[in-house]
């Protein structure tokens, strides 16, 4: 109340002579302020301090926290790849390389073939004559439709020379190695191409020239008197044969070695023979 005497508890405490003058003291039993207590200050400091800077409690050994190991850091930054995935990637790369190399090889071979293609046949020679070839020494009878031989050089593919009919097999019934037609160029001339017109059924044969290049008449005694300069697998219709090595010759033999089946028999057909330089 206003005007009342203050109690003994509210009286100020006199200064201690041993302390500095002007220091304000409170009674020991006065309640402590929660904002000014030492415990509050320590709690506030611990909130903002780093964990690594904390000091161990008195009487306890200090054990620092080790930094993360290098292996852990590498594992966290770059996880290892599955070895099987690495092998799959390497295998795929090899397959791609093989495909590229293969394609390059195909293009190179095709280019080389195109570059090495021989020139087209020139104008054919005018042939002086033609006759059949069927030596008795080889199993023939010296006659293989001789009257039809000239049809191979008449310029008309609708007319043709044919072999006789053989009823048992394509190899002339096993009687002889072959039969054919010999054409005469009139004199020795360079030859690079032979152009044939065959029948509609696949026929196999060879092109031969005399072993002796300077002969003035065709050797009709045996097939061994002629040497092969070109050959053709079962073929039909228009056939162009290029000689790997051009020859100079007067006579050319088109020699059939396997006949096609025509109806119940085996028979070969040559409609046209052309010889070009």
What does this structure look like?
This protein is α+β, with helices and mostly antiparallel strands and 277 residues long. It has a domain at 144-276: Jelly Rolls (Sandwich). Helix content is 19%, strand content 28%. The chain is built from three helices and nine strands. The chain has helices at residues 38-48, 70-77, 83-116, and strands at 129-133, 161-162, 179-198, 203-210, 226-235, 238-258, 261-262, 265-266, 269-276. Strands 1, 2, 3, 4, 5, 6 and 9 form a seven-stranded antiparallel beta sheet that branches. A two-stranded antiparallel sheet has the order 7-8. Strand 7 and strand 8 (265-266) form a beta hairpin. The longest helix is centred in the middle third of the chain and has 34 residues, at 83-116.
List the defining traits of the structure above.
about 280 residues; alpha+beta; Jelly Rolls; seven-stranded antiparallel β-sheet; two-stranded antiparallel sheet; 3 helices; 9 strands; about 20% helix; Discoidin domain-containing protein; membrane; transmembrane; transmembrane helix; Galactose-bd-like_sf
């Amino acid at each position: 109340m206003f005007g009342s005497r203050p109690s003994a508890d509210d009286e100020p405490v006199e200064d201690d002579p041993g302390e500095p003058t002007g220091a304000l003291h409170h009674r020991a039993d006065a309640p402590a302020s929660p904002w000014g207590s030492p415990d509050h200050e320590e709690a506030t400091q611990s909130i903002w301090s780093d964990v690594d800077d904390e000091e161990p409690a008195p009487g306890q050994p200090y054990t620092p926290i080790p930094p993360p190991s290098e292996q852990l850091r590498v594992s966290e930054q770059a996880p290892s790849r599955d070895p099987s995935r690495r092998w799959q990637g390497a295998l795929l790369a090899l397959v791609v390389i093989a495909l590229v190399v293969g394609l390059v090889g195909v293009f190179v071979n095709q280019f080389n073939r195109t570059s090495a293609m021989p020139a087209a046949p020139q104008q054919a020679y005018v042939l002086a004559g033609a006759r059949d070839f069927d030596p008795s020494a080889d199993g023939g009878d010296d006659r293989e439709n001789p009257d039809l031989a000239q049809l191979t050089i008449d310029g008309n593919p609708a007319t043709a020379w044919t072999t006789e009919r053989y009823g048992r097999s394509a190899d002339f019934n096993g009687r002889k190695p072959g039969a054919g037609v010999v054409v005469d160029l009139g004199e020795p001339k360079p030859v690079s191409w032979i152009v044939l017109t065959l029948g509609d059924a696949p026929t196999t044969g060879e092109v031969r020239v005399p072993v002796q290049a300077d002969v003035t008449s065709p050797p009709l005694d045996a097939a061994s008197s002629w040497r092969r300069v070109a050959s053709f697998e079962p073929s039909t219709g228009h056939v162009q044969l290029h000689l790997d090595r051009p020859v100079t010759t007067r006579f050319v033999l088109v020699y059939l070695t396997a006949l096609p089946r025509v109806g119940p028999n085996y028979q070969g057909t040559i409609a046209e023979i052309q010889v070009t330089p």
